[in-house]
Amino acid sequence: MTLLVHDVTLTYPDGEHRLTALDGVSLEVPAGTLTAVIGPSGSGKSSLLAVAATLVTPDSGRVVVAGRDTTELGPAEKSALRREKIGIVFQQPNLLASLTAAEQLQVMAHLSGRPARAVRGRALELLDAVGLAEKADKRPHQLSGGQRQRINIARALMNEPAVLLVDEPTSALDHERGAAVLDLLVTLTRERSTATVLVTHDHAHLERMDRTATMTDGRLTPSPATAADPAAVPRA
Prior knowledge:
Blueprint: E1 3-14, E2 17-29, E3 33-38, H1 45-52, E4 60-65, E5 68-69, H2 75-85, E6 86-89, H3 101-110, H4 116-129, H5 145-156, E7 163-167, H6 175-192, E8 195-199, E9 211-216, E10 219-222
Parallel strand pairs: 3-8, 3-9, 6-7, 7-8
Antiparallel strand pairs: 1-2, 1-4, 4-5, 9-10
C-alpha cells in the first residue's frame, strides 16, 4: 500500500467555532492504481489532497506515504518526503515563463541535488513519455494549454514519486484535450506504479478509474457506480 490516509479529521477556525473540513476520512491507494475523488465545491476534496501531500497537518488520524508514517515528522522531514516521494499536479500548470519545457523539469531535480547530466536525461525521458519530446526547448507561451498541462504532469514525476496527487487537471481544457490528459495519467500510473489520487469534476471518464469515491461535507464514501464492489473503493 503506497498511500494510506486513516481516520483523518481536519478542522479550521471559523469565528468562535471550528469548521470541519475532513470528518474521519480514510483512503487507501495501492501502487499502480488511480482513485478519483469527486464531489461539490467546498466538500473537502482540496483539503484531502493537502493532507495527503503533508502540506497540512490534520487534527487527528494518520497519513502513511510509501510506508512512512508522517504523523511525527517535523517540517524539514515532511519537505524532504514531498521532494522524494510525492508528486503534485496543480489545477493550473504555473510554469516559469523564462524556462524551456526541459528546464521546468530540471529545476525539480536540481532541488534534490541530482547531477546535471542525469537530470537532463531524466527530463527528456519524461517529455518523451508525455508526447512532448520535440517541445523540450519551447517556452510556455509557445505551447498550448494541453501541452502545458502535460509538462505539469511530467514535472510532478521528475523525482520518481511513489504518490501522485492531481487537482482538477482538465478544468481549463476542452473535452478532447481533457480526455488526452486523463489517458496520459492512467498510462503513467500503470507504467510507473504510482499511487494516484485524482480530484475531478469531470464524470465522463470515471470508468477509467480503478476506484471512485465521493466527498460530501467532509466525509468520503464510495460512489454509487462502484459501491457494489467494496474491494474496489476506498473505505470511509
